[in-house]
Amino acid sequence: MKLICSKKGVIFDFDGTLVDTSKVWNIIDKQFFERRGIDYNFEEYWPLIQGKSLKDICCIFKDLYQLNESVEQILAEYNQLIQLTFKNKLKLRDGAQQFIELLISKHIKVGIASSCSKKNILDVISNYPIIQQNIKAIVTSEEINMNKPCVQIYQICGELMGICNIKDDIVIFEDSYNGILGAKQTEALLIGISSFEKSKFIERQNMCNLWIENYQNLTE
């Protein structure tokens, strides 16, 4: 914690890192595919979509399952399902609220760099007023039209936070392989966190400066 507190800012990924969305995505996917009578395999498509924007995920679904609808129609339906599910069912991971509020109390800037849409992030964050009021930047793949492992998403987030020297002044928290791969390029202190993401576990651990199971130990 002392090393983190020596930095000016912290950038978090969202999906998997700040919130455990695995159960929620399963609910959404089940509804979406059951409407079409499709047997889907989460393990089959997960490696294809990690780090991708929702629009790109819809493109993958259209091709993978040969859906008749346009990408725009699929995206609209998915957004509707997400909006009905995210705000009411998603909470920050154990210890995350306390950890972020601790950072805020120590005047460490907080930002989010994610493949999730900004609206979905804000729907969840709105349940935590102190965090909502103090987030300095939220940058999404949709906004910059680039998916992780692009390094630009972290650079832009750092700039919006008012921190230009990412390498020396920022800590990045990530869980997925593509996220860790992108964050590694910044040369910032990189902390990996266990999540529902199971692929390339050893590779992900080895790329990080530190690996944690949850945020609870960081607040003790």
From TrEMBL:
InterPro entries in the record: HAD-like_sf, HAD_2, HAD_sf, PGP-like_dom2
Determine if Transferase is one of this entry's keywords: no
Question: Keywords for this entry?
Answer: Hydrolase
> Mind listing the GO molecular function terms for this protein?
phosphatase activity
* Repeat listed as a keyword: no
Q: What Gene3D superfamilies does the record point to? A: HAD superfamily/HAD-like, Putative phosphatase, domain 2
Question: What is any Pfam family matched here?
Answer: HAD_2
Q: What SUPFAM superfamilies does this protein map onto? A: HAD-like
Its recorded name reads Haloacid dehalogenase-like hydrolase family protein
Q: Which organism is it from?
A: Spironucleus salmonicida
Upper taxonomic classification of the species? Answer: Eukaryota, Metamonada, Diplomonadida, Hexamitidae, Hexamitinae
